[in-house]
Amino acid sequence: MTDHTNADTLRTPIVAVLGHVDHGKTSLLDTIRGSAVSEGEAGAITQHIGATDIPLDTISGMAGDLIDPTDFDLPGLLFIDTPGHHSFSTLRARGGALADIAVLVVDVNDGFQPQTEEAIDILRRTGTPFVVAANKVDTTPGWNPQDGQPIQRSLAAQSERAESMLNENLYEIIGQLSDAGFSADLYWRVQDFQKNIGVVPLSALTGEGVPDLLTVLMGLSQRFMKEEMAIDVQGPGEGTVLEVKDERGFGATIDTVVYDGVVRNGDQIVVGGQDDPIVTEIRALLQPRPLEEIRTEKKFEKVAEVGAAAGVKIAAPDLDRAMAGAPVRVVRDRPLEEVIAEVEAELAEIEVDTAEDGVVVKADTLGSLEAMANALREAEVPILRAEVGDIAPRDIAVAETANQDEHKAILGFNVDLLANAESELESADVKLFTNDVIYQLIEDYETYVEEKQRAQQ
Ligand code: GDP
């Protein structure tokens, strides 16, 4: 472990937002970004690919008197723009989670839901410190909204009845966290955020309690980054592919979050590819232009280098074979072979156990493929083949070779059936299931198997 006593060596912590659908993840991110923009001068937030960087001064402005910026030697917080545990599990870094800390959003009226449980499982497995945002406090009957205020000030303005109704819901969530094996309490009663989960009541709609959330995130990152993270901010860049995208004028590009080191234009890089690692040279590093400057032609601005943590679009030859969720490594000053071996080792960690007979699994990213494999293992469904990518004719042919009838199936997570595979599927004796919620996908498949077995009896 490196001792980070020098402020310059602490990089921006990466924050992810997870939670059940409709509990308010997107709204919360929007509110944080929106209030950062209104907090001040242009440049209060910097635009990145796939992430938003909010500097310390802006955060302390947003948190009002809750934060003293001199208490922190972090540059700010980098929020991953795509919420949800799907993107969270996609975002890996050296076998762990890419995000340093997470916000678990729970609708205060709705409590724990299936995706809340899934998110908790992922956070536990990856050992990611997190805080719970008990969202939508404004929907408490009789609530008297206090826009943008810290939660204590907001609570002081509520009727006794509203406050006690809110408390009842909050304690329900604290109880559910305890059932999940986490000791938790209202955040102002928590002394040590690594031993206890802090619950922050807030509203993404009115912004009340958001200052408190930012305060807890800063406190949590400060401790975590100091004690747990060994970061070489000056070294060769390391990152994770978020998305592979065709970009006019650049060909296939990869949206990448750089979590360590520096990436420079012209660097030789190794990227996890569909068959073998891709070795290529960076032609351009691209960042989005500020919105007001975007005319029709140029969406991006070329930059010479980016340092961790940051989101950037990388343009380079041969990136069409890159996989979302795969590692990206700058080679600089190291033998190429060593870097290739590193990328291969990281990819091997994600490899899925397959059986002689089983279903075909397709997923949009390596992380989601792994999550699918874990969920299928728990459901005791064997896997014949598992791959990243849309459903192609070849997948249907493979599924048809399954021995048991119930295994002649393709489970596609967040992927499409390719146009050239449609007619193939119609004529084949293969059942296709697609969904963008893992547990629903598996539930659909299990229901199908049960019905099939019942029909045979
Ligand atoms: P996501 O699926 O978790 O990203 O949830 P969204 O952010 O899309 O929110 C789902 C719905 O809840 C939307 O209609 C939001 O306007 C609403 N919503 C989110 N946060 C709040 C909140 O704090 N208060 C209220 N009243 N509604 C909210």
UniProtKB/TrEMBL annotation:
Residues reported to bind GTP: 19-26, 81-85, 135-138
Molecular function via GO: GTP binding; GTPase activity; translation initiation factor activity
Keyword Disulfide bond applies: no
Ranges annotated as spanning the membrane: none
Domain Tr-type G: 10-226
UniProt superkingdom: Archaea
Keyword tags: GTP-binding, Initiation factor, Nucleotide-binding, Protein biosynthesis
Function of the molecule: Function in general translation initiation by promoting the binding of the formylmethionine-tRNA to ribosomes. Seems to function along with eIF-2.
Family: Belongs to the TRAFAC class translation factor GTPase superfamily. Classic translation factor GTPase family. IF-2 subfamily.
Protein name (database record): Probable translation initiation factor IF-2
Organism: Halorubrum trueperi
Gene: infB
